[in-house]
Design goal:
The complex is a heterodimer of chains A (333) and B (264).
Chain A (H helix, E strand, L loop, with lengths): L6 E4 L2 E2 L2 E2 L1 H17 L3 E6 L3 H11 L3 E5 L9 H15 L3 E5 L2 H14 L2 E6 L1 E4 L6 E7 L4 E6 L6 E5 L16 E4 L12 E7 L12 E5 L9 H10 L3 E4 L1 H5 L20 E5 L5 H7 L4 E6 L12 E4 L2 H17 L1
Parallel strand pairs in A: 1-4, 1-6, 4-5, 5-12, 6-11, 7-11, 14-15, 14-16, 16-17, 17-18
Antiparallel strand pairs in A: 2-3, 8-9, 9-10
Chain B lengths: L1 E5 L2 E2 L10 E3 L4 E3 L7 E2 L1 H17 L2 E7 L5 H10 L3 E5 L9 H15 L4 E5 L10 H9 L3 E11 L2 E8 L2 E8 L2 E5 L11 H9 L3 E3 L8 H4 L7 E6 L8 E2 L5 H15 L1
Parallel strand pairs in B: 1-6, 1-8, 6-7, 7-13, 8-12, 9-12
Antiparallel strand pairs in B: 2-5, 3-4, 9-10, 10-11
Helix pairs in contact in B: 2-5, 3-4
Classes of the chains: A alpha/beta (333), B alpha/beta (264).
């Protein structure tokens, strides 16, 4: 049909090493390429790229494109779009994979528009359709309440951004052989319209919501800002973080950055405790990946109980202090 | 400063999950009866961002929405918040377009509106949520794009945008005209004042068809779609909730504590 062949992975480098998601994608790319009987390649950018090319080969890439240019050390949307589109138009991959990261979610749609492919964003599963040999990309839609599988019948490359940690990292084999291909052409400064003038890392007090192993979230039923103190007490005993549903944030009881849900943070802790949260679709979208969900709610028919593993029906004002005290006792025992 | 805001009307994401039903054959969601569709949450933030810029720099805000005739409601909402004008883009040929098709239609409508300094979109829609239409639209319009804005300041024909990243934020500068996608961190949308709401309610929202914006029918042909949905499913969840009880709330709490203690 056309001359697009093989898999190309858009790699990312963090702290001088291949990013964990890139190692996952190299493994996934290897698997897809083997199924198609084609080659898998990776693209690495920035002044650390050359040094990491062998590493990408060890993880399973047949070819590594190296764009050694210090202008690519940090992400600039225009510079990256220009270079990646250039490699893509030269290498003509059939499939192109990016991590669904700060970089991937910004770059993939622009790149796709520029090269004219078909992209599926934030995928959780990829497969080669045995009959058509098309890439079938599955992604959560409607806040994770449904899954959609998408294909690109004729647009090439078939692009997908993959949510980090959805596939295992590739196995490293230092004996693997591959080819390192320098990318010709440097970033054209004239094509850089958008400039990054500052990068600020935010300091977070205590445990970051997205990284916390325990999240204690409150909803509209909490009734006021001061009542969140009870949730903070429980979170602190469990070494966790406090979150909230959209109504609690909209009321201004807690800052918007603590919002868990479709239009807030998506968390997947070991334990998620939903306090006085009814469990709207948009909220559940943000906590469904939790290993265990505990619900505390006055209303025994609240939706939250349909996704919870453990529940207590009752007034959180009576339950939380007793729960915190008992856990403190159990922890110190 | 002239701003065009692209808004979408979606299924209300705040419904209980039990009301969420799909038609797997049509690969579409069945709108729950009695639940009116709403403006997509980030698109409402995009209108708020446009209003804040207008408060400071004056100018005109135009809202556009591709959808059904009902999308007039989200245009009226935009006008109630502070937009000056708005149009609904509705045509049988616009139904179930992929992101490229959607961006194409929005681009043609923007071409008809004419001069602009800024195009704003929500970071992603509350339904399909890919977050790609804004960037594709910018590429089609040939203008720079900055995604995930938490704050937008304009000065000397340049925008300064605070962009959300996972461990903090970046500040980017982009020359106008450009496109910015707006994230929730920009802050709550304003509540429309009474007189504006009255005015918006009375507004007759014009509907633009494919022929009104000069859309090329080949670009809208599903056979030329870049992506196609082949399956839509609702993942099965097998959760049995164990309700922990006790003779008093304190006892129930203690019993729950014992369960939690094993989990972590």
């Amino acid at each position: 049909m056309d001359n697009h062949k093989g898999v190309l992975i858009c790699g990312e480098i963090t702290d001088g090493k291949l990013a964990p998601v890139t190692i996952e994608l190299i493994g996934l790319g290897r698997k897809l390429a083997d199924e198609l009987g084609e080659q898998s390649s990776a693209l690495l950018m920035g002044s650390k790229a050359s040094g990491l090319a062998q590493e990408a080969i060890a993880y399973g890439a047949d070819n590594v494109f190296v764009a050694d240019d210090s202008l690519l050390d940090q992400y600039n949307p225009d510079a990256y779009t220009q270079i990646v589109a250039g490699v893509c138009q030269k290498a003509l991959p059939s499939i192109m994979l990016l991590g669904h990261t700060d970089i991937g979610m910004d770059l993939a749609p622009r790149l796709n528009a520029r090269v004219g492919g078909g992209v599926a964003m934030d995928c959780i599963a990829l497969a080669i359709d045995p009959a058509t040999k098309l890439l079938a990309s599955t992604r959560p839609v409607f806040g994770g309440n449904a899954h959609a599988t998408m294909v690109s019948k004729s647009a090439r490359p078939q692009m997908a951004t993959i949510r980090p940690k959805t596939v295992p990292p590739a196995a490293r084999d230092a004996s693997r052989q591959g080819q390192v291909i320098p990318v010709e052409g440097k970033v054209d400064p004239a094509a850089i319209k958008v400039k990054v003038v500052e990068r600020i890392k935010e300091q977070v007090e205590g445990v970051k919501l997205e990284d916390a192993e325990v999240v204690v979230s409150g909803g509209r039923g909490i009734g006021g800002a001061q009542n969140f103190a009870m949730l903070r007490d429980l979170a602190s005993v469990l070494g966790g973080a406090v979150g909230a549903s959209r109504p609690a944030c909209d009321e201004g009881w807690v800052p918007a950055r603590l919002q868990v849900g479709q239009s807030g943070k998506v968390v997947s802790p070991k334990l998620y405790i939903a306090v006085a949260i009814s469990g709207a679709m948009a909220h559940i979208a943000g906590c469904l990946g939790s290993k265990a969900i505990v619900a505390i709610n006055k209303d025994k028919d609240a939706n939250i109980f349909s996704v919870a593993h453990f529940g207590v029906v009752g007034d959180y004002k009576q339950i939380l202090p007793a729960l915190t005290a008992k856990l403190k006792e159990l922890k110190s025992a | 400063m002239n701003t065009i805001v692209c808004v979408k009307q979606v299924l209300d994401p705040e419904i209980p999950p039990a009301k969420f039903k799909i038609d797997p054959t049509a690969k579409q969601v069945i709108p729950p009866p009695g639940v009116p569709p709403v403006i997509s949450v980030y698109d409402e933030r995009a209108i708020e961002a446009a209003c804040r810029l207008k408060d400071k720099h004056k100018g005109k805000i135009t809202a556009i929405s591709m959808g059904t005739e009902k999308a007039a409601d989200v245009i009226k909402h935009a006008i109630a918040m502070g937009a000056d004008d708005g149009f609904v883009l509705q045509d049988a040929a616009f139904e179930n377009l992929d992101s490229f098709g959607t961006a194409y239609v929005l681009g043609k409508a923007i071409g008809k509106i004419g001069e602009y300094d800024l195009v704003l979109c929500g970071r992603q829609a509350a339904d399909w949520g890919a977050g790609e239409v804004g960037s594709i639209l910018a590429e089609m319009l040939g203008i720079p794009v900055v995604t995930l804005a938490a704050d937008i300041q304009a000065a000397d024909n340049t925008l300064k945008v605070k962009r959300i990243v996972s461990d903090g934020f970046e500040v980017l500068e982009a020359p106008m005209p450009c496109l910015v996608t707006v994230s929730g961190e920009i802050g709550l949308p304003r509540l429309p004042a009474g007189p504006r709401m009255m005015m918006a309610r009375k507004k007759v929202v014009s509907v633009w068809k494919a022929s009104d914006i000069g859309a090329d029918s080949a670009k809208l042909d599903k056979a030329n779609a870049h992506t196609e949905v082949t399956a839509l499913t609702v993942p099965t969840r097998k959760t049995e909730c164990e309700i922990i009880t006790g003779s008093t709330p304190t006892e129930a709490a203690a019993n729950l504590a014992a369960k939690i203690n094993v989990l972590i």
